[in-house]
Amino acid sequence: MEVVICPSPDEVARLAAAKVSRVCRDVGPEVVIGVATGSSPLALYAALAEMVAAGRLDLSRASAFALDEYVGLPPGHPESYATVIDTTVTVPLRMDPARVHTPDGFSSDIEAAAKAYEDAIVQAGGVDVQILGIGSNGHVGFNEPTSSLASRTRIKTLTPTTREDNARFFDSLDQVPTHCLTQGLGTIMDARQVVLVAQGEAKAAAVAALVEGPVTSMCPGSILQLHRYATVLVDEAAAADLTLGDYYRFTYDNKPAWQRYLAGL
Ligand code: GLP
């Protein structure tokens, strides 16, 4: 796992965008990007959008798969992840809406919708680079603590913590759905590369558990310790609980030139 501690949230976004865009260029125009909702990747998406606007990145033939979706929100609901991804990813990155996918959380057959989503990812050739945030309880996607480390896309019940964290997007806590459809941890682990971003002190404990704790379903993100190509980009506040912070800084500062794929845009 590569851990990069950045001096500011802006630098997290800048380096993450450099990493993601590098994969996009290496893979080619039909790259498949895994996208997360939440606040954490918004500046990363904005940085990618700047590259697209400047003609330095073309995602018009790329595909995207969102990690998750609430169950029960009708199509077009402003807080459905389909709508959020459209606004924060599809439009600014000038992607083809037909190639941007979210699980169908409004399906009358949720199990079939979960299977169809797994099949669609396989059909697209698998995810080349998965963008992730992390929940304050260590969840990735909506894989809450005690999720199977081998799980695939399925329905999950949100924890009270997650519903409270996400209540800011709704008028009241009661309006936050109780269930979601989420890619499983096994699905996420199939991505060829993973780029996780976290900012702020509220994420410090989760980041430390993910990077340095035991691999345990109590911190679902810790499964990324078993991924061959996971990059974790955090600001100083989110890095505060890391035991080996100085080592990660030293490692980044002393990267051999050929490994400096994160440097500069
Ligand atoms: C959300 C999403 C996750 C996201 C996490 C953190 O509920 N399902 O994909 O990474 O929780 O959200 P935020 O980035 O807003 O802190």
How is the secondary structure organized here?
Elements: E1 2-6, H1 9-27, E2 32-35, H2 42-53, E3 63-66, E4 68-70, H3 81-90, E5 100-101, H4 110-123, E6 129-132, E7 154-157, H5 160-166, E8 179-182, H6 185-189, E9 193-198, H7 204-212, E10 230-235, H8 245-253
Helix pairs in contact: 1-2
Residues 36-40, 67-68, 133-135, 141-142, 162, 166 line the site of 2-amino-2-deoxy-6-O-phosphono-alpha-D-glucopyranose (GLP).
Give the strand order, joined by hyphens, for the main sheet.
1-10-9-6-2-3-5
What is the string of SSEs from the N terminus onward? EHEHEEHEHEEHEHEHEH
Find the CATH topology: Rossmann fold
Shape: globular
**What is the CATH class name?**
Alpha Beta
Structural class: alpha/beta
User: How big a fraction of the residues is strand?
Assistant: 15-25%
Rg result: 17 Å
Contiguous runs where pLDDT drops below 50 for at least 5 residues: none
Which CATH architecture would you pick? Answer: 3-Layer(aba) Sandwich
The helix fraction, in percent, is 25-40%
User: What number of domains?
Assistant: 1
Q: Determine the N-to-C terminus distance.
A: 22 Å
The number of strands is 10
Mean pLDDT: 96
What does this structure look like?
There is one protein chain. The protein has 265 residues and is of the alpha/beta class. The chain has one domain (2-256): Rossmann fold (3-Layer(aba) Sandwich). It has eight helices and ten strands. The protein has helices at 9-27, 42-53, 81-90, 110-123, 160-166, 185-189, 204-212, 245-253, and strands at 2-6, 32-35, 63-66, 68-70, 100-101, 129-132, 154-157, 179-182, 193-198, 230-235. The strands form two sheets. It has a seven-stranded parallel β-sheet, sandwiched between helices. Strands 4-8-7 form a three-stranded antiparallel β-sheet. Helix 1 packs across helix 2 (42-53). The radius of gyration is 17 Å and the shape is globular. The two termini are 22 Å apart. The model has no long low-confidence stretch (mean pLDDT 96). The structure holds 2-amino-2-deoxy-6-O-phosphono-alpha-D-glucopyranose.
